[in-house]
Specification:
The N and C termini lie far apart (58 Å). 34% of the residues lie in helices and 23% in strands. A hairpin with a 3-residue loop joins β2 and β3. It has 13 helices and 20 strands. It has a six-stranded mixed sheet with strand order 4-3-2-1-5-6. α9 crosses α10 and α11 packs antiparallel against α12. The radius of gyration is 23 Å and the shape is elongated.
Amino acid sequence: MRIQKIREKLGDQKVDAILFTDPISIRYLCGYSGSNGLLFVSENRALFLTDFRYKTQAPREVEGAEVIVPDDGQLIDTLARRDEIQSIESIGFENSISFCRLEETKKKFSDRLEWKPIENIVTELRSSKTPDEIEKIRVAIDVAQKGLLAALPMLKPGIVERECAAELEYRMRREGADKNAFDTIVVSGPRGALVHGVAGDRTIETGDFVTIDFGAKVNGYHSDITRTFIMGEPTDKQREIYELVYRAQAAAIDAAKANMTGKELDAVAREVIEKAGYGEYFGHGLGHGLGLEVHDPPAVGTRSENTLLENAVITIEPGVYIPDYGGVRIEDDFLLKKDGCEALTNLPKKIEDIIINID
């Protein structure tokens, strides 16, 4: 039980209990997927509080904690009156809570209660995925991939980026997505240099690079995939850039395994791009974790000293982005193991696979 793992860390945090307010932390620890709730965990008790809207939902979802639904909807006031609070001297709070909310919360409790910030306690747990989480991510990936394959026939010169994004999002919903993992990115031609550019009103033209970054959210878990297509026969420069990004990703895939740092993995792909003279055009981290959030722990970038744990799910997504010209990014999702990694995505990505034939 995940709540028990929190209890085991109370001593290290030097607190008698922890109050969780972040929806992602709460969902991870007890399974609740609603928008309003508090989770209190002490050595002997776990209390989950929510309002009337979730009176039926919460008991069905919450595991490992007593569910409390105050008639007046006042969660903090109700918790402050509980005997479990009266018997403790210190309580931890997540650093994601805003200063104003924390100050308002403190006013509801006794002045004798000491409040202490805690860091990374849930993040560390979330960095390594359970078999159930891995399976949910696989489903989200499968839904996204099927969506793209269903939408690809409409990718041709004359379509507007925004139309392309809308079709892909519709297809993912048809395949079972609860929603998009994030706002779908479709950038073409010179706009391909916008790393996180939103789909706009530009009409896709023959000769363009077209980068599509997309993902599905299914049962709370996310996928994140990018493919760059070439509209028609590529030029020599397009081939050079695409093949470079492909080689950089392949090198990182070969090197990726548990117990290396995110910084070490990033350096593998970055070296390939830098040696080819395009280092200045690769300005973001190599990847990130994937799970309940699109950017889940762990981090994979130039400053990521964190260790990549076994069963972490990460993206590997090198790119080259040249202002006023365009860009290429190739992104796939991987499960880290002791001796390597398993590709969870399987969409084609060799250059012959991503050329869109123009009749």
